[in-house]
Amino acid sequence: MTTTTVRQVIETPRRPDRTAPRETRLRALDGLRLVAALMVAAYHYGGRGGEVTVAWGSSPKDQFPTLSGYFAYGCLGVQVFFVISGFVICMSGWGRPLKSFFASRASRLLPAYWVAVVLVTAVFALPMVAFKAVAPSDALVNMTMLQQPLGVDRVLGVCWTLWAEVRFYALFALCVVLPGASRRRVIMFCAGWTLAAAIAQASREPLLDIVLMPEYAPFFIGGVGLYLVHRDRRDVYAWGIVAVSFLIGQHYAVRGLWNAADPNAFAHRTTLGIVLVVAFGFLAVTAIALGWLNRANWRWLTVAGALTYPFYLVHEHLGWVVIHGLHTGLGLPSAATFALTVASMLLLAWLMNRYVEKPLTPKLRSALAKAR
Questions:
Q1: Sequence-separated (6 or more) residues with CB below 8 Å from residue 106
Q2: Which pTM value belongs to this model?
Q3: Are 254 and 73 in contact (CB under 8 A)?
Q4: Which of 28, 126, 321, 328 has the fewest CB atoms below 10 angstroms from its CB?
Q5: Are the C-beta atoms of 126 and 143 separated by less than 8 Å?
């Protein structure tokens, strides 16, 4: 083969990948989002101590003697969210210019977030509420979503996860979206981030830890790898990314959340239990990526997915207020209080989606996409 022929082979554009799926709404992924959010809510309402004890009037262990131990695993819903996020961000960023990607992410996160900050601040400022509001100056900083790195008191307890999401978006935008997404570039991004995160962990350098997030990187990277699997289930490199991400991710989850059996501890999380929940997150997204759950195509799952983000934002702090009112104030049983609190937060999430996200998200996205 001549040099000219070799050059022609290399430079000839590849035909479209016939294994790449036609992008349609993955409604099962919407359902999994809500499952992860409900896991986190169960943890915040009945799987931990802290200020929720004030809401119940006693420890949630007293309210849910059997279930509280299981609710303690609900915090792993965050790791499930991160796997889903890796999948979705790779899917939405593929073939999209940087400005459009930024407009999409900002318009998706900010409207509901701003309203949630205002709502929680306003409710906690009421004299009859038993929980203390943050200082006005700190509340204003919270509107930027940068309160975590600035060391400012948080209005929303869950906002630390948004700080992790924002850093993931920035890394993906700079390394993949800006130069243009391709299978090779995404694989190099996943491999490079995995190695860099391991180096950051070994170096114990705070700046590297902030940028590369060794503790959470495997979950985002695993989700990105699963999107490659979604495009081509025969992609050996994609499966390798997923496998390595699970192995490293479960290690960080166990290291961070395992605790020895101790009668003074709120609950005992076992190593096996943590690994099983992490495996559930990876396996559930894998099943969706492979199309095994395509039959779960019910329209209500789209609604469930739309409610997940506003529900996630408001459920913890406003849930405490509802629990205190229903259980301590009205004397409702624990189970009824739990169910009604979740239902009320879902209703509030629906109102936020209907009257905040639906009208404001497209307007903000359009304004950001058109801006020079």
A1: 364, 365, 368
A2: 0.92
A3: no
A4: 126
A5: no
